[in-house]
């Protein structure tokens, strides 16, 4: 029997997307092994969720390192020791040194609360509302040295309603994130989704557009 697909996670906050991944595994929708949850925040809720689920954790405090680059290499050395097949950024709130990222090309994904390439970086809900957008959403993309600029794999769109503010928009989007991320991870774990020099491919066919989450499924 082949070994389970191994996943490490990086998270800075309460860990709602970590919880969604763990729950998908418990439901039998994600036949993977979570080998590590790592964080830059000792009090991150994601660490507590992992510990309750029996997943190893590690926390490195950036304040213990003189340079950002030194921190990033130390963190990724710890992650590499867990031998993951895929590294998932689930609310990790740090910009990572490009040289530290390089060995993970094609093996590292991130979930971001906007329809990329719109609104890279922070305050995405505020910026979508200020622009008067009719639609917002979440994206899962491969990580590169360009902030939120790697190839987009899949997106979950969400209509902006009259009266929405940052809080209501974020609250309505979060459940879509919790569906989108496990669905993408499942495709990667099954060997169906990959990144190469030609871009993102699904079942060997290059995706001309990101997959779209609709009606509980990822659609081309």
Automatic annotation (TrEMBL):
Active-site residue numbers? 112 (proton donor)
Might you give the EC number(s) for this enzyme?
2.1.2.2
| Record domain Formyl transferase N-terminal: where | 6-185
This protein's UniProt keywords: Purine biosynthesis, Transferase
Query: Any keyword Transferase?
Result: yes
Site feature (Raises pKa of active site His) residues: 148
List of residues binding N(1)-(5-phospho-beta-D-ribosyl)glycinamide: 15-17
Q: Does the keyword Transferase apply?
A: yes
**Pathway, according to UniProt?**
Purine metabolism; IMP biosynthesis via de novo pathway; N(2)-formyl-N(1)-(5-phospho-D-ribosyl)glycinamide from N(1)-(5-phospho-D-ribosyl)glycinamide (10-formyl THF route): step 1/1
Q: Which InterPro entries match?
A: Formyl_transf_N, Formyl_transf_N_sf, GART, GART_AS
Root EC class = transferase
- Binding-site residues for (6R)-10-formyltetrahydrofolate, renumbered to this chain: 68, 93-96, 110
Swiss-Prot/TrEMBL catalytic activity: N(1)-(5-phospho-beta-D-ribosyl)glycinamide + (6R)-10-formyltetrahydrofolate = N(2)-formyl-N(1)-(5-phospho-beta-D-ribosyl)glycinamide + (6S)-5,6,7,8-tetrahydrofolate + H(+)
- What Pfam families would the database entry show? Formyl_trans_N
The protein's job, in short, is: Catalyzes the transfer of a formyl group from 10-formyltetrahydrofolate to 5-phospho-ribosyl-glycinamide (GAR), producing 5-phospho-ribosyl-N-formylglycinamide (FGAR) and tetrahydrofolate.
Family the UniProt entry places it in: Belongs to the GART family.
**Under which name does UniProt file this protein?**
Phosphoribosylglycinamide formyltransferase
What organism is recorded for this protein?
A: Dyella jejuensis
Instruction: Give me the gene this protein comes from.
Output: purN
